[in-house]
Amino acid sequence: MIMRGIFIMVCLQIPPLPLHADPLVPIVQQQLYADLKEVRLVAKLHGYAIVAGRHCIDCDENLAIYIRRIARPGEVGGNNQSDGDRYTYPGRYLDYMTKKLVEKTRMFYGYCYEGLPSLLWLTEYRSGDVWIKSEYLLLLTGENLEHRYVEGHQPSVFHLESANCKELPGILMEMEP
Hints:
By secondary structure, this protein is mainly beta. It has no helices and 13 strands.
């Protein structure tokens, strides 16, 4: 049986008020429907919610990153998204049988690529005795997500100096069987 999770965000807006009024007033609640367990908001970026979660508890599925479009005011059901694309959660991954390190992934979010709203994964994975670098870039442009993958090097590493680009700390996990 699949149970539908409801993830609620409370957004604060600062309306123009007289000087004697409290400027922080919670006025908007948005719901994101996700068939996920242990859901937490990583960031809200350019009309999208970046969330971490998994589909089951006490199973072999690792924590992962999911991107959900946030419904605009007056939009009904626009944010009801099941499954969707699943992205690697940052961290160090061990082989579940040998317990050897087989992958290292870093994830950045914000304005990390040429000033555009984006998510960026820098990965190194083991192929035999060699570590191979790769980069996965996801641009949040309008209604669609633009995907770019580069194997063999990480060209976007030069764009990470921006104060508007944050790294999500990684955790230690085992690869899924």
